[in-house]
Design a protein that fits this description.
This protein is α+β, with helices and mostly antiparallel strands and 866 residues long. It is built from 30 helices and 23 strands. The relative contact order is 0.06.
Amino acid sequence: MPTSLSYYGVSDFCFSNFKAFLALQQPDGFIPRSFGTKPFGRNQHFKPFLAQIAVLGSQQKGGSYEWLRASYYEGLKKYLDRWFAYDGDKNGLPVWDSSDASGMDNQLSRAGRQGSYFCEGTDLACYLYRELECMAFIAGELGKSADKADFQARAVALAKTINDVLWDERDGFYYDRNEKTGQPIRVKSVAGFIPLWAGIAPPEKAKRLVQEHLTNPKEFWLKYPVASYAATEADYFQGTRGGCNWRGTSWVSANYMIMHGLLRYGFKDVARNLAYRNLEMALERNPTTREYYNADTGSGNGMDPFWGWSSLAYVMPLDVETGYDPTELVPHIRPLLAHDLGVVGPDKIVGDAATLPSPGLKAQDRHATVSFSGGMSAKLYSKEVAESLSGVLTYNYVGEDSTYPVGFVRASPDPQPWHKTFWTRDGGTFLRELVKWGYTEQARRVASCMMQLVGKNHEGYYAFPRYFESRIPRSGEELDGTSAIIIGMTMLERSLPPQNTVKAEIYRFLHADSSPVKFIEYRLKNRPLLSGEGEFGGGMKVNGPYYNVVQNQLSALALRAYADMEEDAGDKAAAQEAWTNADQLSSNILKYLVGKDGAWIWCIDPKTMKSDDAILNSVTNQGFGGINGVLSMYADVSGLEPARTDKELYAVSLQTFQKLYNTPARKRQFDTYGIWTQFDRVMGGAGASPSYGMGYATQDMLLFDNLTMASKALEFLAQDTFHPVDGYALHRQSPYYFYERMYSPEAIGKVEMAEGCGALNLVNVAEPLKLARVMIGIDDSDPATLRLIPRVPSEWNGFEAKDWPVLTRHGTVTINLSYKREADGVHFHFESAETIKSVVVRLPAGNGWKYYNKADTDHFDLTQPN
């Protein structure tokens, strides 16, 4: 019960339980197993879990153990010594009073009736091993070094005895031993798997246990495992014959321990299978939680309802996917249900996880939230988006003046690679998301930091470098970073009220003759396209300047965004010049960077204006998913309906997408797993990221209105974020954090699965945030008309979006949206804090779409029948 309650953040039961039983301790250390009006168990010593309960409770209360010092510590020592007094033959293995005392009530063939005292139980020895480990830790915390060393030595000796005496090499199983006869008790009980949980089985023994017995459908692996007795035992049976049955039925308490043992030894797939079968057994096969279950049918037996250990079935899948284990020695206790899912009691849920206050943010702050619905992946993605944004603001974003200026955003958290740098392209994309998600104060600080750090280049223009370090101002010629920042800054400037000082500061910065915009326009004089180097030039590890399609598209969009800002400010001449330059650049992109096959060309040589096959087929360029960014970036400035507003760009982007998809290895892996691999050769052709790989591709799927493909991609993105492929050693503080390098199952054993920049890498959070926005479908690219273009993946059924800022002719207002796909059709609701001049909604209708229009409105309720 203390373990179950820890998931809700309840620790008091640990202390009340502990103190109540210690108060009953007799001079020889004996503590009765029970107290109250019923006499059962009073002559049996308290099960060997008291030290573990003390640790579980203390870790939930800040890790202080001083409360044990005065009297409880000595009581624990006496209690533990009393257990070893039950070792009659002094071989180091105490005995159970009976099967009843073991908790496996009717396993008489292994542990006998009450008062038998012959069974040197494998389970008992493992529990005592963990008690000794906990006592060693407690002793260390209290400064009792001699005791600590003694407990550690005893634990090591006990583990050796278990393996030497209780392991049967012929059968590959841990059998109990009869102390009176000295012979093994050849009964295959679920107790034989407890060494996995205790962590004392050598790997080769663990492998035999799992492969020969645990997963053997003729023994323990029935439809709802784990059977408490092997089905081969003579007294095995399912159901109940009066009282509890441990001769074959499935008990969640034992299954929970075995699951964590499987995870400890790397059998994650088996653990996951066990976890989800137990969840099905408890949640779907029975109307109420039961004490134990029929391992063949899943039907409940015993107490009805039962709120003890069986509730662990509901958290077993979470533990598998997150790697969380409150039964570890000195665990980091996280109230998983209360913190991660918003559950404060077995039947009470408070709000959606994605809308709960995020760590590092003030509770009274109101920002945009979204909660997707329609299955586990929808819930996961909602949580991943919320947690990752919060994580960046906690660990990457600098909110107080220090070595770094306020508003500096690290590429990744300390101590991950590049944690001392602020990359301009990534910073521009994150600034964009801060604005769109309503984090105005943080966006203002990021923009101010950028303006503070950028210097003038040798041509006299403010132009951004690849990245900033510390407080040192720098300039450069990173046009993709410069363009991304222009887009983010214009978004922020247009969203702020007229009197805001940062609005004026941004306008002066971008409007000045030495501005980054003027630098782009200067570079376009006498040139058809903009050249660049590096990742969005010729490509990673390709030297020299090239005309790159993604970089030129981003710069064209930056000019359009700037033109919109100037039009708002009333400078028609500046706006027109920027639009003209943008139109010419877009025209040249189509003229020079479209191949004979109708797809985008990654880059061309500025001298020859032709592509070089050696460059296009270099290791880092072949199949590079970043080229999907041409269309996905379009949505940053020009809206969410490219098929309506730019048919030619849409057509070339679709051809490019199909060309990449039809690469055999990518097609096979996407169709099988849902991963859009980022390269054909890098990472063995079996890797991706939430940005240039999965991010751009999935955004394009949505913009193409291919909701079936998008659903498959989002399933992988959500699930693989939560539980990466087996064997991937990923380090992060939350299983909901997006991370840079994702791997296909085909990568296992074939490539080194390195973390790269790791969790909360900035651009790999920004693009999944944008992906959520594209699904919601808020298009305020034209402040005169708010267009709502929701795109819900085919396997999801809707969303709730609250407090989203939108740009109108009269300033920024907040709106709420809801979309629900039900049996009778789609139900859509829109409401605004203020009246909006024109609202257009697009909803699915048959095999197409239907548009609804409403003028001067602050709400819109629609039902589109199937």
